[in-house]
Amino acid sequence: MPGMYKSLPLEAIALNHPVPVNVWDPKGVLLLRKGECIISEQHRNHLMLHSPMVEEVDWQAWTYSYKAELDRMVRSNEPLSRIAGVNHPLEVRDVRDSTAAEGASPDRVWADLQSALTTLLHQGAEAAQFQERLGRMEQRVQALWSRSADESMLVLVQLLFDQSMGYSATHALLCAGLCDMVAPGAGLSAVERTTLFRAALTMNIGMTRAHDSMARQMEELTDAQRVTVRQHPLVGADILRRVGVGDAQWLRLVEEHHEQPDGSGYPNGRQVDGLAHRLLQMADVYVACISPRRSRGGLLSQNVARELYLGPDHKPDPLGALFVKSVGFYPPGSYVRLANDEVAVVARRGARANTPWVYSIIGRQGLPLGEPALRDTSQPSHEVRSSLAPGDVRLVLNLPKLLSKP
Questions:
Q1: Which domains does the chain have, with CATH numbers?
Q2: Which of 27, 65, 105, 296 could form a Cys-Cys staple with 400, CB 3.0–4.6 A?
């Protein structure tokens, strides 16, 4: 239950701009989760009917960030017209940086990071101190992945399934972590891994807003959207140059992450086949495929893994095999049906790619279990029968409770 409240001037928040704090009604009902957007004026009006408020500690941090941004612009001699245009707080800077150390639930920490990255990618070339902010996020993200890759996958895959959250930043965080997991086995150096990680976080900066919108729409892409998709690698690299990125390999990876070895890719039809490039593209394709859209459900993870393992020519691909071995057929956070007909969420990878540890959440009779039951799928009675799309599981997962289990 939240603490003391402050009224929120919701009319000051731009449409499709991720809110940097949780928004509540006076009774403690969550109206808008941090990182979600007000998607229309009708949505804003509906929220206004419920007297939107924020916790006092978040309000203080938000106001502080707003004033800090104004002070920075004044000290930098920014034009008065631009300073006047900053009419609402842009983000809560580092307000939750210590949450992990304070014992916050990992899902809360990841949601904060997702929100911060969404804001940074949306701001793009207009972002102040882009590289410094990205660097702080990079350190926290890498620390979380290093501490528990399974826990990180569990939270991020679940965020990926939550279509109320901005898609592009979640996609980026998961891609970066998967690349970092696979890269050592692929023989990439520490420097190459760092560059690859940064490229994964920023490869879609050229279309972040469009990326979020396209994930929510039911209709096919318009011609204009297709142009945006084809041009986003070039636009993204240009944005990174404008914010001071000078790492040629970072820029190259962003610019070429949709190019192919045979020259059939885009935007320039170059023949590109570097190891880091292939790994980045593999993570990009994997995350995109398992992500549900308004227009379709996510593809089953075991089928996506099989495609990566075989490669484009349907022959075993060593890098694809390493990727599948590292991630598993059933990544933490995804859903499976067991041999005993229970439905489970994958908690962590097992000794083999097809034998994860899972928590059964729905019993064989189709009723939710009062307490999730840990299952070892290497045991025949609990082996995985199939993947399940997130839309097939009619249950809201209590993620904090699941993460608190040993």
A1: 1-79 (no CATH), 105-296 (1.10.3210.10), 335-403 (no CATH)
A2: 105
What is the tens place of the pLDDT at every residue in 196-225?
Answer: 999 999 999 999 999 999 988 888 899 999
Angle of helix 130-147 relative to helix 149-161, nearest 10 degrees, comes to 120
| Residue-wise DSSP of 332-381 | TT-EEEETTS-EEEEEE--SSTT--EEEEEE-TTSPEEEEEEEEETTSGG
**Pick from 389, 398, 347: which is nearest to 107 by CA?**
398
pLDDT digits (tens, 9 = 90+) for 367-385: 999 899 999 999 999 999 9
Tell me, what DSSP letter sits at residue 311?
A: T
Asked if the peptide bond before residue 267 counts as cis, ω within 30 degrees of 0, the response is: yes
253: nearest Cα among 226, 225, 282: 282
Q: pTM here?
A: 0.78
Residue 405, classed as helix, strand or coil, is coil
Between CA 228 and CA 279 the distance in angstroms is 23
Q: Yes or no: say if 161 and 298 are a contact pair by the CB < 8 Å rule.
A: yes
